[in-house]
Amino acid sequence: MTPPDDNDAGRLALVFGLGNPGPRYAGNRHNIGFLVADELADRIGSGFKRHKSGADIAEGRLDGVRVAVAKSRSLMNLSGGPVAAAARFYKVPPESVIVIHDELDLPYGRVRLKRGGGENGHNGLRSISRSLGTRDYLRVRFGVDRPPGRMDPADYVLRDFSKAERAELGYFVDHCADAVRTLTTKGLEAAQNEFH
């Protein structure tokens, strides 16, 4: 992949889906960012290619907007390095980076968008904030609900979606991808108005 030229740099959306690589984690709640990234790559008609940033990246256009959809090849807790490296490569400022991640404090399937905020115990977000030097990036939060009973949240997000959840997962992934599309084409306020 070649770097975008200066004329295109401002029009490229860098979208990072968070997850853990490898088949062991593929169906985990923590990997919802990867699932949405896969859907977005399908929509732009592009496969993922290894990139020097430490991520696999698919490039194309989403409703006319140039996008680079990325998934880190490192574990979730080390996502920051690849995110920051890809942002430098594409000349995307931190406040324009879009990160898709699982959110315990939202009901299953609910999508919320925001800029900035805390990490709420999410080690992937903590790594990204540290590597970008700011918390002021865009977040697409996909609700996975709270763990039942006294289950450790870390164990809960590393478990696969339940059978009941999987029955609706395709719909919710599609809905989340729609939210990302609106965010990249119309901006944060329009996406919040439509999806909140």
Automatic annotation (TrEMBL):
<dbReference type="GO" id="GO:0004045">
    <property type="term" value="F:peptidyl-tRNA hydrolase activity"/>
</dbReference>
<dbReference type="InterPro" id="IPR036416">
    <property type="entry name" value="Pept_tRNA_hydro_sf"/>
</dbReference>
<dbReference type="Pfam" id="PF01195">
    <property type="entry name" value="Pept_tRNA_hydro"/>
</dbReference>
<keyword id="KW-0963">Cytoplasm</keyword>
<feature type="binding site">
    <location>
        <position position="77"/>
    </location>
    <ligand>
        <name>tRNA</name>
    </ligand>
</feature>
<feature type="binding site">
    <location>
        <position position="123"/>
    </location>
    <ligand>
        <name>tRNA</name>
    </ligand>
</feature>
<comment type="similarity">
    <text>Belongs to the PTH family.</text>
</comment>
<keyword id="KW-0378">Hydrolase</keyword>
<keyword id="KW-0820">tRNA-binding</keyword>
<feature type="site" description="Stabilizes the basic form of H active site to accept a proton">
    <location>
        <position position="102"/>
    </location>
</feature>
<dbReference type="GO" id="GO:0005737">
    <property type="term" value="C:cytoplasm"/>
</dbReference>
<comment type="function">
    <text>Catalyzes the release of premature peptidyl moieties from peptidyl-tRNA molecules trapped in stalled 50S ribosomal subunits, and thus maintains levels of free tRNAs and 50S ribosomes.</text>
</comment>
<comment type="subunit">
    <text>Monomer.</text>
</comment>
<dbReference type="GO" id="GO:0072344">
    <property type="term" value="P:rescue of stalled ribosome"/>
</dbReference>
<feature type="binding site">
    <location>
        <position position="25"/>
    </location>
    <ligand>
        <name>tRNA</name>
    </ligand>
</feature>
<dbReference type="InterPro" id="IPR018171">
    <property type="entry name" value="Pept_tRNA_hydro_CS"/>
</dbReference>
<feature type="site" description="Discriminates between blocked and unblocked aminoacyl-tRNA">
    <location>
        <position position="20"/>
    </location>
</feature>
<dbReference type="GO" id="GO:0000049">
    <property type="term" value="F:tRNA binding"/>
</dbReference>
<comment type="function">
    <text>Hydrolyzes ribosome-free peptidyl-tRNAs (with 1 or more amino acids incorporated), which drop off the ribosome during protein synthesis, or as a result of ribosome stalling.</text>
</comment>
<keyword id="KW-0694">RNA-binding</keyword>
<dbReference type="InterPro" id="IPR001328">
    <property type="entry name" value="Pept_tRNA_hydro"/>
</dbReference>
<feature type="active site" description="Proton acceptor">
    <location>
        <position position="30"/>
    </location>
</feature>
<dbReference type="GO" id="GO:0006515">
    <property type="term" value="P:protein quality control for misfolded or incompletely synthesized proteins"/>
</dbReference>
<protein>
    <recommendedName>
        <fullName>Peptidyl-tRNA hydrolase</fullName>
        <ecNumber>3.1.1.29</ecNumber>
    </recommendedName>
</protein>
